[in-house]
Amino acid sequence: MQTMMRYHWPGNIRELVNVLERLSVLSRGENLSGLDIRSLFGNASDCGENPDFAESPNRDPAALNYQKRVQKDQIIWALEQTGGNVSKSAKLLALPRSTFYRRLRTFKLDQL
User: Fold this and answer.
1) pTM, rounded to two decimals
2) Residue 44 DSSP code
3) What residues contact residue 104 under an 8 Å CB cut-off, 6+ apart?
4) In this predicted model, what pLDDT tens digit does every residue of 24-70 receive, in sequence order?
5) Dihedral of the alpha carbons of 77, 78, 79, 84, in degrees to the nearest 10
6) Beta carbons within 8 Å of 79's beta carbon, 6+ residues apart
7) What's the rounded Cα separation, in Å, for the pair 2 and 96?
8) Euclidean distance between CA atoms 27 and 72, whole angstroms
9) Taken in order 47, 49, 16, 21, is the CA torsion positive or negative?
10) Which of 68, 1, 67, 65 is nearest to 33 (CA)?
């Protein structure tokens, strides 16, 4: 609770709802540690969050936030399902091809 109260919440209510939904999915009825919760907020320095929280020694700034990990996993899954066909993979995920290609580059999956 303290972690969530210290967070700046630069987005609107949808950001809070998304974090709560992710917490619900990840917890599966069990308690989450503060470290688990921090990983849901992405890059704290981009969000204008409390500097003490952003510089926490337990925070790994290089780690992908939850949304990026999900996007990467979806791209890998779609490519596996379509035998590496980018057009079919983009269609499978209901993404424009340009967005799919951009994410491939972002996650360095275009080099596979």
Assistant:
1) 0.46
2) G
3) 75, 86, 110
4) 777 776 776 665 676 676 544 434 444 444 444 444 444 557 788 88
5) 150
6) 85, 86, 89, 109
7) 39
8) 21
9) positive
10) 1
